[in-house]
């Protein structure tokens, strides 16, 4: 299957690296315990750089990261400037990375990294920066972007639900395993109903990941929130220290400035975008969790890109008072076991765990259709429309295709990517069965008769000109949508042998041998009958002669 896309081998490893994902991220976290003599691995430094430095210094080190425009006069240094970097000693570089801009009387917006990175990691960063400044990037993968469509698909988490050739499945969202300690229930329900961007540059920095929209009903959003709220480890909630609260808020404001939190966070409308907007913390998060996170982000989430800034317990308490303006939320009442169970079932059925891995994660089945050969099957215009606004096709699934708030350019990149997903193992249809570009009225008539209750009775299962019996969750796809969605030649392949294309499908094989088609129509010629059904289906989508490619 690896040949499903020409050049797959060339870009696949890059997709992995570009994300600097969990595998590398975890080795980042555990590197602290490794002996200082572990050999420098440029790929590891690259992942460290990507996770912690690139938002400001840029993916190629030119000082043009997406957070840079929000830093006003304190612009990140161009690390590829060989003149400048060449003039600095290794000791100087080590010191500025470990202790931050303050150590060189420079900008506080350059954070200190000594509590986040081990001494050997900092030494590796010095080597990495030397390589950046020596011209060619230390590793080609930071500069050379792989084809947009495949990277975008991985970053957005499409392979989490769909098999797509050999694209790898990777978590793209935060760990939700302690949401009961972390978020407020009312916010959570609202977010699940209408998700928005929290981390401007992705949970994995510089990725385009985002939380998709599952078009949840109110009831579904409430069940999911109830389930997530039950997941907790029990962080104690601080209470506002009333007599001292005003003083603590004031102290917190000062510390917030001293630690230069604004380098990455917006507060009162100004500041960086590398981390979430902190104006909304009071509606969103729980104070106990915030305190803990500010003290040691990696203890909460080992791959968190927020630096450990060495804030002590009292400092974290003061900053938390400042962020909440000393008005801590009322604790949420615990949800009923029944509600949480419903939410858990839904969480699995919708495939939430595919993007949000956690300790309890068993690798879930891919819940969406296989897209490996989707370029042979789906019409590109339809795919674009569907990615912009998806609707249910397989009514029996609880799973659904979520909405990703894609830009037009992203839709184009993904639709092109999908159009090129061809299965080389599929033999071409013989010429006589291929679609010529127009449908014939005689075929449409014959197809309609064949499909009718008198003969093959397609409408006993499919929506189309008539309604099937039974409940909608059991209906097969609406053939009017299929007509706009599927490529004409794929419809023929499907009718020839549905079991081969989708083993175990409920769709019967009507044309398994040369005598299976009804004798009364088109002289009992199976091939002509299949073409008649194809034209009939296409006509249901509104096609007339000459309209189709
Ligand atoms: C929030 C933005 C930000 C992040 C994240 C950041 N830097 Fe910086 N960095 C800066 C700014 C601003 C300066 C300029 C400091 C100055 O010259 O006053 C700078 C300067 C530097 C310098 C040059 C120091 C000098 O003497 O001129 C180095 C080296 C550097 N950063 C390395 C790193 C490394 C390595 C990382 C990741 C571990 C990193 N930076 C992460 C903002 C950032
Ligand atoms: C949470 C799981 C999930 C994720 C993530 C997801 N999909 Fe889907 N997708 C589905 C499900 C389920 C369906 C089937 C919907 C139906 O039939 O009603 C689907 C259907 C589709 C279809 C139509 C296929 C067909 O044969 O009808 C396309 C195309 C598609 N997805 C592309 C994508 C792309 C591109 C991405 C990444 C941006 C993506 N999907 C991410 C679950 C997901
Ligand atoms: C170098 C950039 C950087 C600096 C400096 C920084 N943060 Fe962060 N912060 C982040 C990032 C990135 C996240 C998102 C982390 C994650 O998802 O794990 C974050 C997350 C947070 C959160 C959780 C917010 C939420 O909505 O989930 C809080 C609270 C927070 N930071 C507070 C602070 C405070 C207080 C300071 C100063 C003491 C600070 N940060 C300094 C980058 C930074
Ligand atoms: C295709 C991947 C994907 C799927 C599937 C997905 N999420 Fe997310 N989710 C994300 C990403 C990425 C973020 C981080 C968004 C941000 O920071 O802007 C996120 C954020 C969240 C958050 C907020 C996290 C925070 O920082 O406060 C919650 C809660 C959440 N998702 C719940 C769910 C639930 C429930 C489902 C299933 C219905 C689900 N997610 C399915 C990718 C996904
Ligand atoms: C016993 C129920 C049943 C009958 C009868 C039936 N189908 Fe299907 N058909 C299905 C199911 C179920 C699917 C979905 C297959 C899947 O995704 O596994 C399907 C899929 C299809 C598709 C692909 C639809 C899409 O959008 O992906 C076409 C085209 C189709 N059938 C045509 C027909 C025609 C034409 C007839 C009559 C000759 C017919 N079917 C009769 C159950 C049926």
Structure description:
This protein has 549 residues and is mainly α. The chain has helices at 8-19, 22-30, 42-57, 82-86, 90-99, 119-133, 140-143, 148-156, 158-161, 179-182, 185-193, 218-230, 245-258, 281-284, 287-295, 297-300, 313-324, 337-349, 352-355, 374-377, 380-388, 408-419, 441-451, 479-485, 488-496, 498-501, 526-540, and strands at residues 266-267, 270-271. Among the domains are: 34-143, Cytochrome c-like domain (Cytochrome Bc1 Complex, Chain D, domain 2, Orthogonal Bundle); 148-171 and 368-419, Cytochrome c-like domain (Cytochrome Bc1 Complex, Chain D, domain 2, Orthogonal Bundle); 242-324, Cytochrome Bc1 Complex, Chain D, domain 2, CATH 1.10.760; 431-540, Cytochrome c-like domain (Cytochrome Bc1 Complex, Chain D, domain 2, Orthogonal Bundle). β1 (266-267) and β2 (270-271) form a beta hairpin. The radius of gyration is 28 Å and the shape is elongated. The structure holds heme C (5 copies). One heme C (HEC) binds next to α3, α5 and α6.
Per-chain topology:
Blueprint: H1 8-19, H2 22-30, H3 42-57, H4 82-86, H5 90-99, H6 119-133, H7 140-143, H8 148-156, H9 158-161, H10 179-182, H11 185-193, H12 218-230, H13 245-258, E1 266-267, E2 270-271, H14 281-284, H15 287-295, H16 297-300, H17 313-324, H18 337-349, H19 352-355, H20 374-377, H21 380-388, H22 408-419, H23 441-451, H24 479-485, H25 488-496, H26 498-501, H27 526-540
The protein binds heme C (HEC) (5 copies).
